[in-house]
Structures are given as structure tokens and as C-alpha cells.
Amino acid sequence: MTVTLEAQLTAPGSNAVRYTSYPSAPSLRHPIFIFCNASGNQKGELNAVSPGGTGPFTFSWSRWNDATRNFTIPVKNETGVFSSSVTNLDEGGYRVNITGASGYSASLTGWIFLDSPHSKAELRHFTCDYVALGGEAAVDTFYYRDINSGSRIILPNRVRFLWSSQPASSIPYPDIELNPQTFNPPLDDVTYNLHVTDSFSCTTESSFFYESIHVKADFTVDPAKGEAPLEVTFTDKSVRALKYKWIFGDDTFSNDISPAPHTYFIPGDYKVRLIVESSLHCIDSMTFDKIVVDKSGLSIPNVFTPNDDGMNDMFMVDKTSLRYISVDIYSRSGIKVYEFYGEGEILKNWEGWNGNIRGTSLKASPGVYYYIIKARGWDNVRYDNKEYRGFVYLYR
After folding, report:
1. Are residues 177 and 249 in the same domain?
2. Is the pTM of this model over 0.85?
3. Number of structural domains in the chain
4. Chosen domain end from 192, 210, 228
5. For 118-167, how does the pLDDT look when each residue is reduced to its tens digit (9 = 90+)?
6. Domain end position, chosen among 186, 210, 234
7. DSSP structure class, residue 66
8. pLDDT tens, position by position, 261-272
């Protein structure tokens, strides 16, 4: 970037410009050119063009001298030209006096500073539970001189910083805390980076590689809800785990990495906890708050229509979490036309009464039938009183 003062004094390659504020000469505003010096090898450059007169001109360059408090150190003279440049300049103040025909003269003044912000990123400390980063961030302090008194005048400069990581991980207050500490440490290996910027947009970066030691307990549940007996599959998703302890919430546990499907027989809510430990003895745990095993229940329809139209063709009770059930159905004359007893897989696969007599192809006549149902839930609730004796209407 080239910064220009009325197309008279420019600094090719400079990165920012500010202006002087001399206590002894408030009306004078000389440019201050900032060159970012990340490599440490940067030098300054100035180019001058006469603001008036008729050329060609003579350009006489000089540098500020603290001993004489003036621009008395010769730099370069160039005659018979229309513009002039000086290169390979160190920090300091520079002036060029320009003379031309018919007694023309002009003077241009500017200051040069080579800006090198500083950053240092390092690992301050780490445990199984956290990672602490250490950072250094500093910027150069620059002084120019009052051209009349020679006193030092500070050029304001401010440091800004930002921590980041690749891949991204948690860093609390990355632009506020120079030494941040995270209790959500990375599970992947990461590179931490500290980016430092100053008021002149000059930057520097420092980074280090961190090999993660951290462990995380994680698993999925399928299904998380259903009737008893409920068979639940737990799938391990843990990171860097070596030892396992599954606590299923029903007074049973397992040390397997991938335990066999676990069956919950008793209705209720269960919390499942997984505790894992890494080879470096880092420990983490995860709790799944609620596996719901439905309470037992039994609801009996009072009508069905076994006419093979695909709608309400079966006399089937609405049942939940039953340990067993027995169903006896009688005609009005007291003849048993259907019976069923089931538990376990037999109960699970029961499809109900299809309206045929005692499992034959003989169809029961339309009319009223009497049922007696007895059942017991996995929560030990018994369904065997008069509420489960009644009538069902068969229509064809």
C-alpha cells in the first residue's frame, strides 16, 4: 500500500499512515509512515515530488539528529530531476529540501517506523480435565521528536489478540484472556494459534501443536421408551476410552465395551450411566436421564366385525406391559368358542380372536359373546376382577 500526502511525499510499500502532533507547532501535520516488519528485514522508502515550481529540481535529503535536534544527517542529493526517492531507510525522521529555477524552494518532512508486533503461544498446563494456554502479546512503542524542542512524543499503539485452534475447539474469552483455560478440552489433536494485531494492522502469529489426552463418555440408546419387557441396545460412542462400566439403573451393570441388549422388565423410569477411563487414567461419565418402561394396562373392546374387510376384523385387547394374559370367550349358551393363554414371545405375537370357533374354519354366528380375561402386568398389577368380565358383540 502506498500512502500519499497531497501527492508530494509518499512511502511506497508502507502499511499505515498517521500524522504528527507537535506541541510547539500544532498547525504542522507531517506524515508518519508505518511499515510492517514481520520478517525483521523490512526497511523504509520515501518518494518526493515537488509541490510547485518549474523543474528540473534539486532534492537534498537529510535525517533527524537527536544531538543537534534538527535534520542534519545527510542522506542523499539528487539534481536535475523531477522526483527523488530514498530507500533502505531505518526508523527516524526525514526531510527533503527541494530547490528549482528562479529561487524556488520547498521542504517536505516525514517519519518512518518499522513495526514488529510480538506473539508467543505455548502450553501452560494440562490435566485430564482442562487445558491452560500461555500467551505473550506485545507491540512496539514509537517516539517521534518535536521539530522545535526535540522532545519525545509517543505515537499511540494498542495491542489486540485472538486465540484460535484448528480444528476449532473451546477457548473461553479468546480475545480477552491472554492466558485462557478451558474445562472443555479438545478430544482431537489441535494446533493452538495466537494472532496479535496492533493499531497499524501489523500482525504476527505464534502456534503450537497439542496432542489430546482427554476422554469422553458417550453412547446412544434404542429404543428409549416402550412396554415391558423392553429390550434396549446401547451403542458406545466414547472417545479414547479403555475401561468401561455401564450402570443400567436396575441394580445391574456391565464392564463390556458394547454390552448385549439389556432388558427392562419392571415398568418405570431408569437412568443409565456410563463411566469410562483412558489408558492415562482420565475418567469421564455420561448419564442418559430417562428410559421409560410403560406401566401395564388393559383395555377391552365391546364390538368387532370379522368380515375380512381389513377393519376391526379381530377381537384384540389393547394391552401394555403384561406378563401374561388368558382369554376365554363363550357363546350365550355357555359353549367356549375361543381360548388363549400367552406370555413372553407367545403373548407378543398374539393377534387376537378372528371370530372362528375354537381355531377351526367354522365361523361363529353374529351375536353377543361373554368373555373372561385374566392378566398380570410386569408391575404386578392384576387384571382378574369383574371389570375384565363382560360382553362383546360380533357383527358380520
Report:
1. no
2. no
3. 4
4. 210
5. 999 999 999 999 999 999 999 999 999 999 999 999 999 999 999 999 99
6. 210
7. T
8. 999 999 999 999
d(CA 247, CA 253): 4
Cell 456410563 belongs to residue: 274
The position carrying cell 502450553 is 123
Grid cell locating 343: 406370555
Residues 141 and 204 both lie in one domain: yes
Q: Which residues pair with 16 in a beta bridge?
A: 34
Instruction: List, as own/partner pairs, every contact residues 262-265 make where C-beta atoms lie below 8 angstroms and the sequence separation is at least 24, other chains included.
Output: 262/231, 262/232, 262/234, 263/229, 263/230, 263/231, 263/232, 264/228, 264/229, 264/230, 264/232, 264/291, 264/293, 265/228, 265/229, 265/293, 265/378
Strand partners, 94: 63, 110
The torsion defined by the Cα of 98, 101, 103 and 109, in degrees rounded to 10, comes to -10
CB atoms within 10 A of CB 74: 10
- In tens, the pLDDT along 209-245 reads 999 999 999 999 999 999 999 999 999 999 999 999 9
Cα separation, 331 vs 326, in Å, equals 17
Would you say residue 2 has pLDDT above 70? Answer: no
Nearest to 208 by CA among 128, 136, 139: 136
φ/ψ of residue 352, rounded to 5: 100, -175
